[in-house]
Design goal:
Elements: E1 2-5, H1 11-21, E2 25-27, H2 41-46, H3 55-60, E3 66-70, H4 76-81, E4 87-91, H5 94-107, H6 123-133, H7 135-147, E5 153-157, H8 158-163, H9 165-176, H10 201-205, E6 217-219, E7 222-224
Helix pairs in contact: 5-6, 5-7
Protein name: Sulfotransferase domain-containing protein
InterPro entries: P-loop_NTPase (IPR027417)
């Protein structure tokens, strides 16, 4: 199952909640070998997972027994490869994401990797830096491209998820054919390098059909698909 999420959208909390309630394997650290989507350098500096998919990776993400939460960038290639796959797409307004960067920097819970934000203090300074660096345009591109998708997609807005968690969780459960639960609160989680619930790579691989002999390897704490090896 695939949860596509724009950054800073409570997607980690949603992933943990769905995974625990439905006893699913889940991870947000699935990585693959692919070129970066063109024209979005500031976004790629700030966030990972801006790579182009290939058919092998797209098919692997379709595994029903594993919940993948990924910031998949909506390039034409990626949208085409995921067109026939059911996916929940979690979105948030770009300007709110920029303000979330600022709050994270102020509280120390999030460190921006984009040099353009260095020395920024006020909301206006943060927004101007996001715009001048090109990051804002990339976030807007991410939001609008995924919002325009209509095939096999359930769109979820960050504000709705936070305000009406039970309603949104139930919609997701129906969309994915999961048992509808009475869960009414999101797990409180932020991004961390331990945001997966499997103990070993074999624990995840056992969830994949035996015919999948071309599965990724677990290398240095990351799932990697290397086309040169497979």
């Amino acid at each position: 199952m695939l949860l596509v999420a724009i950054p800073k959208s409570a997607s980690t909390s949603l992933m943990h909640t769905l995974g625990k309630v439905h006893h699913l394997k889940y991870t947000m650290h699935f990585e693959w070998a692919g070129s970066l989507c063109d024209g979005h350098d500031a976004y790629h500096c700030q966030h990972n997972f801006g790579w182009e998919l290939n058919e092998k990776v797209a098919n692997f993400l379709a595994d029903r027994d594993i919940l993948f939460k990924i910031h998949i960038f909506p390039s034409s290639n990626n949208l085409a490869l995921l067109k026939n796959q059911k996916k929940v797409v979690l979105l948030r307004a770009p300007e709110d994401i920029v303000m979330a960067y600022r709050r994270g920097a102020e509280t120390g819970v999030y460190r921006s990797r984009l040099n353009a934000f260095s020395g920024c203090n006020t909301e206006r300074e943060w927004m101007e830096a996001a715009i001048s660096s090109g990051l804002y345009d990339s976030l807007l591109f991410f939001h609008n491209k995924w919002k325009a998708e209509t095939d096999n997609v359930l769109h979820v807005d960050f504000e709705d998820l936070v305000r009406f968690p039970k309603l949104i969780l139930n919609k997701i459960e129906v969309f994915w054919g999961l048992k509808v639960t009475e869960t009414s609160q999101l797990e409180k989680h932020k991004y961390s390098r331990s945001s997966s619930n499997f103990k070993s790579p074999l624990d995840l691989l056992t969830q994949v059909e035996a015919k999948e002999k071309q599965n990724p390897l677990f290398v240095q704490g990351k799932w990697i698909i290397d086309d040169e090896k497979y």
